[in-house]
């Protein structure tokens, strides 16, 4: 038993929350050094699902001419049907509160069925184009299926697929690297507004979900996506559209977003939201400062400016560490 656990148990005993006999039983149990493999087994299950679905994709790619399109689609449909059959058979049904399967393997079966459904619809559209030139439908349909599965089976992994599909439907790529490097995102200013609107809608949905008590444990996922989408969209726009005179709008949006996520991270005690909020706000602040002073001639004081920079960055690191420590103390209180 480690020192931290021992101190925590003694604190419970001193507060009379447990009896001396219970303390001895807890100590004896922990001295057995028994540990759980639950997290490791779930990780292997998750990796197995990813490898399985990836393997199907490779199989299709390498044997598309020899197997035949109808055979591949039929095989996919059969596997999807079998997966959903066991999922629905063992599901407890829809509930507004958090639910779980009796066997954790079924959670990953839902994930496999959902990924295979996305592969099936994408392959069907690519090969036979049942939706014609309405390519957005090929994204929207698996997105709707993903949202249904996420809420019916209470699956967070499927929910991330659903939100990603929703972002793709409106023309966005939700990973930070893709958002920054997406050429269309920079060339089409409307995508900046679409990203911000999508992020705001995700936030509004969490507020509505709290009001009706609908899967409130999903809120952290929605808020994480909203934080990244809004922040990266505004930062990217600050870099791209400064000359058009609308950069101040994105500064206001980023400031409002940072304030909101500062408040909500404390309410949810979510360190991940808090850390990324600080990072995005810091990046935005530095871009704002550079934009303000970029037309100022520092030729006469450039030596002083260079000397101040290391102090500024070191101070920023110290302040970041201090903020994280303060946050941890607040949520632990």
UniProtKB/TrEMBL annotation:
Pfam families: DUF2157. It comes from the Bacteria. Residues 12-158 form the DUF2157 domain. The chain crosses the membrane at residues 43-61, 67-88, 108-126, 132-153, 158-175, 190-208, 220-239, 245-262, 271-289, 301-321. Keywords: Membrane, Transmembrane, Transmembrane helix. This is DUF2157 domain-containing protein. The lineage of its organism: Bacteria, Pseudomonadati, Bacteroidota, Flavobacteriia, Flavobacteriales.
